[in-house]
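Re: [ENG-882] Designed sequences occasionally contain unexpected residues at chain ends

Forwarding the minimal case from QA. Structure tokens:
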């Protein structure tokens, strides 16, 4: 498979190593220093672009990929105000876009576990709920996209919570997310149900970026021959 990389930081370099180890070819690498590469023949020859950049540049990058006829796999978070437009373009223009707030296979299993636990705990109002996420100091958005996914899945199942808030629970119906930035932590996510007599906690802790990078390459492989808006639920058959 011919792959273009958009974003060539630590994640981009890890993706490159894993993609090459799986027999793929990197035909184009785009970073902040060479945006003109979007117009190159090398970029247009790519079968898929894997994009890990910043919230400020992500949406513009997607449109450039669509213009070049290149499928997109993106793990950038913080741009979801434009999500409906991306889905609409996929539906009307036959684009291919694979998005995940987290490409780790373990995290996506964690998402499924979180949904199931929330459904159970909806029946037990004595337990209050909170989330905590810890990431490296270079992560620009807070809370993380993974934490927002976890929170939204809880809100969909637990009737006593109506919105998530950052760092504090001002009202009983608030679901607080505590976002911590320290060191070089790849990513820790905790969901806690706390009562007067005990607490229940589920946690996912990443050991390195390798799990995220592998998931992104698997997603790129999955897009071949497909159209539309895709996600990890499709790749892992978690809705089956």
């Amino acid at each position: 498979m011919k792959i273009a990389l958009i974003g060539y930081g630590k994640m981009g370099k890890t993706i490159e190593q894993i993609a090459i180890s799986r027999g793929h070819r990197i035909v184009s690498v785009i970073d902040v220093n060479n945006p003109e590469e979007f117009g190159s023949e090398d970029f247009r020859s790519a079968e898929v672009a894997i994009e890990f950049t910043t919230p400020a540049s992500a949406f513009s990058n997607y449109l450039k990929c669509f213009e070049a006829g290149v499928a997109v796999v993106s793990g950038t978070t913080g741009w979801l105000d434009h999500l409906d437009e991306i889905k609409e373009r996929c539906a009307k223009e036959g684009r291919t876009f694979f998005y995940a707030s987290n490409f780790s296979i373990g995290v996506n299993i964690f998402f499924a576990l979180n949904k199931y636990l929330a459904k159970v705990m909806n029946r037990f109002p004595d337990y209050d709920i909170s989330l905590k996420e810890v990431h490296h100091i270079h992560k620009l958005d807070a809370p993380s996209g993974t934490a927002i996914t976890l929170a939204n899945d809880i809100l969909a199942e637990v009737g006593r919570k109506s919105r998530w808030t950052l760092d504090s629970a001002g009202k009983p119906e608030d679901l607080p997310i505590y976002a911590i930035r320290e060191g070089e932590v790849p990513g820790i996510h905790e969901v806690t149900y706390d009562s007067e007599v005990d607490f229940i906690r589920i946690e996912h802790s990443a050991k390195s970026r390798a799990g995220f990078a592998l998931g992104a390459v698997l997603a790129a492989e999955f897009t071949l021959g497909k159209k539309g808006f895709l996600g990890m639920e499709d790749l892992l058959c978690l809705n089956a």
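QA comment: On inspection the terminal residues look reasonable. The longest helix spans residues 105-121. Proposing we downgrade this to a documentation issue.
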